[in-house]
């Protein structure tokens, strides 16, 4: 079954079509050619399109805030299901092929996110197994049907969940296009079904290069170095602190988030004086101007929530996400609790 939403897209000024397809049927959606001036083969999305603000569950069973975790990266977003016989495996194979054609630096700045339209069957471990057949870096997300439906609607992708009493090898109707977002979360491109790995890679390279290029009023690229990263041995089972130093020799940037496989989540906090006493407050982002920003005791610091396996003498991987510089991975030294 194919449901056209061309009239909706025309009203939004978007060239092309988003198709809803029940896997197993014949489907070759026609996408109008981009304007000759476009540097892309794919259809361009309006910048008003934004990556969905939704928190779902990753393949590790932990909460995954889609928009927050996408900051600083080019994100390919697709809605499908693991029992799909054709559209989904074909699209994931194309995406995996495209990723293999990118340079290591380009790959580090790009992610593929697969959101299931069939959460009843697609548990985290099922998603992990399915996506691992294509590329182990692919992000798989599941969650409540209502949250997935809202995310799809926000992405302008149509999905129709199966009836509550569906049994056996049932099919799920879902959009067949890949939505591409820039590092700031704004819409960039739409890859139609069977777009192909080579064309995906070409357009992704172009998009990444254009994001790098200095435009009007853009002072250039950020050049971030991370040093003196350390995490304290937990003195309580639920939380411990982390510290580091950021040095920016380029354009101003913003630290948008931190994560670690050694913690359920990582939050950024700062100590401030208020009403005659020091208090701690969480911050969502940290400006990183040219110069040095220190995460240290009594000021900005990291809070690793629900830490696991943090032992003195070991190291803890930290993943820092910047709006300009993208993702930077560091190994933090584990130090005694009182240091």
UniProtKB/TrEMBL annotation:
Pfam families: PCuAC, SCO1-SenC. GO terms for molecular function: metal ion binding. Residues 1-22 form the signal peptide. Disulfide bonds join 84-88. Cu cation binds at residues 84, 88, 174. Keywords: Copper, Disulfide bond, Metal-binding, Signal. InterPro entries: LpqE-like (IPR007410), PCuAC_sf (IPR036182), SCO1/SenC (IPR003782), TAT_signal (IPR006311), Thioredoxin-like_sf (IPR036249), Thioredoxin_domain (IPR013766). Residues 45-216 form the Thioredoxin domain. Gene3D superfamilies: Glutaredoxin, PCu(A)C copper chaperone. The keyword Nucleotide-binding does not apply. SUPFAM superfamilies: DR1885-like metal-binding protein, Thioredoxin-like. Belongs to the SCO1/2 family. This is Cytochrome oxidase Cu insertion factor (SCO1/SenC/PrrC family). It comes from Actinomadura namibiensis.
